[in-house]
Predict the 3D structure of the following.
Amino acid sequence: MAKKCYWCADKDRELSSSEFEFRGKKEAVEICSEQCEKDLLDFVAYASDHLWHFLIGLFALPLIGTVITILMQDVDNGGFGCFVIFAGMGGVIFKYPFVTPQTVAMFGAKKGIAIGRYTGIGCIVLGVGFWIVLSIWG
Ligand SMILES: [Zn+2]
């Protein structure tokens, strides 16, 4: 596999070695420019600060949504609960688009993050759709 910039996945540029630390683990990467390195380090710092929000959000919102779904089953077929589950998770993924290392390896971190954000928006749209459809059926 051709070497490419860890951040922007550009292959045709001169790469230099860099490294960052995430949760106490050093990661050696190839980077193409100072701008890419700065963006990467900024995002790593952001991810380190918000990793718990991300995990708690992904865990708590479906749980809350499920409770709401059960409680409001008779009111709106659980539409609002479904909305909370999907839109909540979508919102978390959009705000904290911490994609998997595999995604980063394939697309570079910059595009991987963009893909994460689109996935989040997709989930929110899905949540709104469920809410509307289930409410109408109710
Ligand atoms: Zn780059």
Summary: Residues 34-71 form the longest helix (38 residues).
